[in-house]
Design goal:
Layout lengths: L4 E2 L2 E2 L1 E2 L25 E2 L8 E6 L5 H12 L2 E4 H9 L3 H24 L5 E4 L8 H10 L1 E6 L2 H9 L2 H5 L11 E3 L5 E3 L4 H22 L2 E4 L5 H21 L1
Parallel strand pairs: 5-7, 5-8, 6-7, 8-11
Antiparallel strand pairs: 1-2, 3-4, 9-10
Helix pairs in contact: 1-8, 2-3, 5-7
């Protein structure tokens, strides 16, 4: 159960000791999360630390930006923070350090990020691969799994130029990297079917991890971001009702 779920109310730590952490402030000081702190109810009973997990293309940044606006929270895009900290793209990090090296740097960055207060975090798709990451997210935030079928994810990813130039293939066995004059890297162009197959394969391996990490599973397969927000409020209310009855 999420730390801070007290009695029949979803409660969160008082924000008087906040250290908002965003893309331009990558070194926020840590703050312990203990039961001795004061607690307060936020807008619509939403907690003031929310982590969005899910596959690439599930809408984490899009919905995160909207939630940040609605709840006056700091938006943290974990990939962007890590890129700013390292001075290179995610793809370049994969190329230079390998996936294991990248995951180590991602984990260290996440450990810093979760110490802040009053944030909505759009996590990298593979953050749940690390057991420590999963524990940190559940302990420090209310985790929402944004879920959509691989076919829908493939359509979104295929339309996103950043996925083609700044992110590695989801299936690392298929990675093909070439250096261009600017010393940047790019992935070989992949067809829609290749992207769909990659997403389907990775989804099957991560599905249980997303499920076990999250407090709430939320479908983003259809609808606009505003419709997502409306439905999310309803589903969060349902979540609270279930907690009251448990």
């Amino acid at each position: 159960i999420l730390s801070g779920l007290v009695g029949s109310e979803m409660c969160i730590r008082d924000s008087r000791e906040t250290s908002p952490f965003g893309i331009n402030a990558p070194n926020c000081p840590p703050g312990p999360f203990t039961s001795g702190h004061q607690w307060s109810i936020q807008v619509k009973n939403f907690p003031d630390r929310i982590a969005l997990v899910g596959m690439r293309g599930s809408g984490k940044t899009t919905l995160g930006r909207l939630i940040a606006e609605k709840l006056a929270l700091q938006l943290i895009d974990c990939d962007k923070v890590l890129e700013s900290r390292m001075g290179m793209t995610i793809l370049e990090m994969f190329s230079q350090f390998g996936e294991s090296g990248f995951r180590e740097k991602e984990a260290k960055c996440l450990a810093d990020l979760v110490q802040g207060e009053r944030w909505i975090m759009a996590c990298g798709g593979g953050v749940v691969l690390g057991e420590t990451n999963r524990s940190l997210l559940r302990e420090r935030s209310f985790v929402i799994w944004l879920d959509a079928p691989p076919e829908t994810l493939a359509e979104r990813v295929s339309k996103d130029p950043w996925s083609a130039t700044g992110r590695p293939p989801l299936d690392q066995s298929n990675i093909k990297i070439s250096t261009i004059e600017t010393n940047k890297f790019k992935t070989e162009n992949r067809s829609f079917e290749n992207v769909r197959q990659e997403l389907k394969q990775v989804y099957s391996t991560r599905q249980e991890l997303y499920k076990n990490t999250s407090h709430l599973r939320f479908s983003t397969s259809t609808g606009s971001p505003e419709e997502w927000w409306t439905r999310l409020q309803q589903e969060f209310d349902n979540f609270q009702t279930i907690q009251r009855g448990s």
